[in-house]
Amino acid sequence: MAKQEKIRTRIWSEDPEPDNPFAAAVCYCHGYDVYGDILGKASWIEYLYLLFRGERPTPKQARLLEGLAIAVANLGPRDHSVNAAMNAGVGGSTYASCLMAALAVGAGQLGGAHEVYIAIEYWGRCGQDLGLWEKELLNPEIPERADIWLPMEHPPGFDPHGASCTTPVRQILHYLTTHGEGKALSWLMQHRAELEQIADCPLAMTGVAAAALTDLGFTPKQGEMLFLLLRLPGAAVHAMEQEGYGWRQFPFFADGLIVENDPGPKVAPHLRDSS
After folding, report:
1. What kind and span of H or E run contains 61?
2. CA–CA separation, 158 and 72 (whole Å)
3. The sheet that has 20-29: what strands, in order across it?
4. Torsional class of 175: left (φ above 0), alpha (ψ -120 to 50), beta (otherwise)
5. What is the distance between the terminal CA atoms of the chain, rounded to a whole angstrom?
């Protein structure tokens, strides 16, 4: 008898259809019947929390995660990952390529997901101890093992190019502090100015996200992955919009390209002159 392989997962289990063992009849996510119990009773954010954390969130946890998801869903064209998706879209790349461009650029350590990873690690080592934060920010730990990620070039969670803490960052910090139930956000709200003075740069959105994810109990790896996912909606819509406008209306492209035998603007077939 041929060996029957099994996929090991703590997240998911299925009962097969009676007439087809290759199709699922009932799907369980961490013990909850997805299509029988969760669907129609839980919000997308509650299901997202369940997937990552393995348990249903409290109402405050769900509200905190929802606030963070809205805050980073679209950081606008200034955001590096959104701008990468816009470049891909206006260049005619496939939609999958647009999102991959956003993920690749948004994965890094300058406002990216790995910065959130490192910032959550800082929360794990420093907690609510200002002295430990000062020590970590001024003398960051250098990994002994070579890694694909180079050492950080600025304090994680802070904006090395910022002049002051931006209004959206202060607004989301205030909102999440008001609606959260953990200690990191409230402590960050209370000590933001002191931390900014130590870091010599203002708090960034990655810093607020790291504090929120710490309060929600996310590990650095979970936080990094979720931060990548939560920023994709803005990248997607901006890429599609720029695809529609075309490269002639996109900054840098029009002046930097010389087109020979330019056919002119693209005209829809029904608008072309038949004469």
Report:
1. helix 59-73
2. 16
3. 12-17, 20-29, 32-33
4. alpha
5. 73
Take residue 258 and report the two structure tokens written for it.
């010389």
Q: Is 150 helix (H, G, I), strand (E, B) or coil?
A: coil
More confident residue, 143 or 180: 180
Give the number of other CB atoms < 10 A from CB of residue 76: 10
Distance CA 124, CA 214 (A): 8
Whether the CB-CB separation of 239 and 100 falls below 8 Å is answered with no
CB atoms under 10 Å from CB of 175, counted, come to 18
Assess contact for 82 and 235: CB atoms under 8 A. yes
CB within 8 Å of 167: residues ≥ 6 apart: none
User: What residues contact 161, with CB distance under 8 A and at least 6 apart?
Assistant: 201
Q: Is 20 in a helix, a strand, or coil?
A: strand
pTM over 0.85, yes/no: yes
CB 198 within 8 A of CB 107: no
Question: How far apart, in whole angstroms, are the C-alpha atoms of residue 214 and residue 200?
Answer: 23
18-74 confidence digits (pLDDT tens): 999 999 999 999 999 999 999 999 999 999 999 999 999 999 999 999 999 999 999
132 three-class SS: helix
What amino acid is encoded at 10 in this protein? R
Q: Which residue has the tokens 């701008």?
A: 83
Closest CA to 140 of 115, 106, 108: 115
Q: What SS3 state is found at 8?
A: coil
